[in-house]
Amino acid sequence: MSTSPRPLPRNIRRASLFFKLFSSEHLAHIPLGILLFFAFVTLTIMVSFPALISVERNETMLTRLLADKGFSLITAFENVLRTGMRSQVGIRLQFLLEQMVQSGDITFIAVTMPDGTIVAHSDRKRVGEILNIDGREASEATMHQLSPRGEKRWSIMEIEGTRSFVVYCNFQPGVPSRPGGRGRGLMEEGRHMGGHMEGRRHGGGHGPGRMQGPGMGRSGIPVPMIFLGMDISPFEITRTQNRAYMTMLVGVTLLVGLACLLVFYHIQKARQSSLREKAAKSRVAALEEEVRRKEKLAAVGNLAAGVAHEIRNPLSSIKGYATYFAQRFPEGSEDRQAATVMVREADRLNRVITELIGLSRPTDVALQPTHLEEVVQHVARLLAQNAASHNVQIILRLPRKCPPALADPDRLGQAVLNLCLNALDAMPNGGKLTLSMAVSEGRICLQVQDTGTGIKPENLRHIFDPYFTTKTKGTGIGLATVHKIVEAMHGEIAVTSKEATERHAGETCFSMWLPIAASQPEQQLKNQT
Prior knowledge:
13 helices
């Protein structure tokens, strides 16, 4: 029983999609301006994010230092009360609050009951009133929300008429009541004042109010709260300076990065311009070479048209008389052999003239949808015996499905056969002859590759010139004819070669690119137009 393949995990699919999106082939089609824009945005994020984190970290450290300083002052204040004189607690508490505020960095100190009633304050006029938060008296809900619940807390708020860095917690100096009942401890005094203010808040009652909530101690006695406000201006100045410094650093980094991106952009533009210039020069050189070759073909054609008729007439007479004399002389005589040689040479000369005339005149091709694999297989069957005699192995690498090409099958077979015969001549000691096909960029590429002696680099640019040959018995017409046939079918042909050495065999590869035949509706539309 066949099972379907399991799908890849989502993270692997995302990673493959990411690498495919940012691959060099995909990025090559994106305009350079868009790439630079995304690079600038990425640089901005990479620079700004660490800067923001650094600013946040510095502010957190500065806040922690202020909070630790405030809590240290509160702890010291509680210790002084706890170890100082046990009499006249309220007087000592008020005195210490007034003395501590004289330092420039403390704006106020207030000890309040859980409902907001001020028990002690650095400004003695505020004793007995309600704590002022955000420009108005603090409500019970506000105090309930601010209740530290046994913890040490801090906040930046508008309190007691100034914007301050406030640290606050429960205030429990642990001072007992005076012996004999003549004095009241801080807890009792706070309970009395808290009850009085509680009655005033609710507009009635002559006795002490009863408070409930998180500000109540275990024994039911309300636990006071202490608020210590510190001057926030050094904190805000330092924070402003840090942010200004980070903004300047980020701005300078972005400007430097933008300058680098612009330099890179101009370098890339110059590089692309240079590549386009080189490509244009190469194209111009190829066109000049094509014009030179066509001029040479035109000159050969004019020569062939003017001389072929004048040569063929006497050549026919020479061949006729040579045949006549060969029949008159006895069999086996030297005269008969000389006449036979004259007939063969006349035939060879006539064949050269015929090839010359065929090269000079326009090539007639009947273009039609052609399955190249059939042409290749037909040529391979024709070469089978010849290749076996040369100890050459023929290898076919044909795709399973290949669209038909627009070509002349007879002319194309002639061109491929000519290339294969040249390949066999280049492998006197045997080798491999590979015929392959592939579809690339809307065209079909047909390659003929051999492992022969190779072609010298200085001969490659002349390989398709008429009458250029490196063979002792070659005419130099074959490759020129192949080039003309491919060109007549609106194709292109190119050659790459590597010379053989003592250690490695050579390699020569002829590549022909032919257009893919249009579909039947497209072909009818072209015929109508």
